[in-house]
Amino acid sequence: MDPEVITQPVRPRQDPLEQLSPREREVLALIAEGRSNASLAPRLFISEAAVNKHIGDIFSKLDLPVDTEGHRRVLAVLAFLRA
């Protein structure tokens, strides 16, 4: 093995969901229930724009690719369900 590889610290794999804030986890849980962005806003007492911001942050933190033909929401829910 390459000596440089051996000297690199080994980092344990972190669950991407651990990067989400409690509010982002709450939003993701509601998405997993099948709720639309429009229905999340009044339920969370925030604007629909704030819901969209949370969802964008979730996608970013879960490192979901932009080019998934509109399936990032499904991929985020699958990550949530696996955890």
From TrEMBL:
Gene3D superfamilies the UniProt entry points to: Winged helix-like DNA-binding domain superfamily/Winged helix DNA-binding domain
InterPro entries noted in UniProt: Sig_transdc_resp-reg_C-effctor, Tscrpt_reg_LuxR_C, WH-like_DNA-bd_sf
Organism listed in the record: Streptomyces djakartensis
Protein known as: HTH luxR-type domain-containing protein
Domain of life where this protein originates: Bacteria
Keywords noted in UniProt: DNA-binding, Transcription, Transcription regulation
Pfam family, one: GerE
Location of the HTH luxR-type domain: 13-83
Keyword Membrane: no
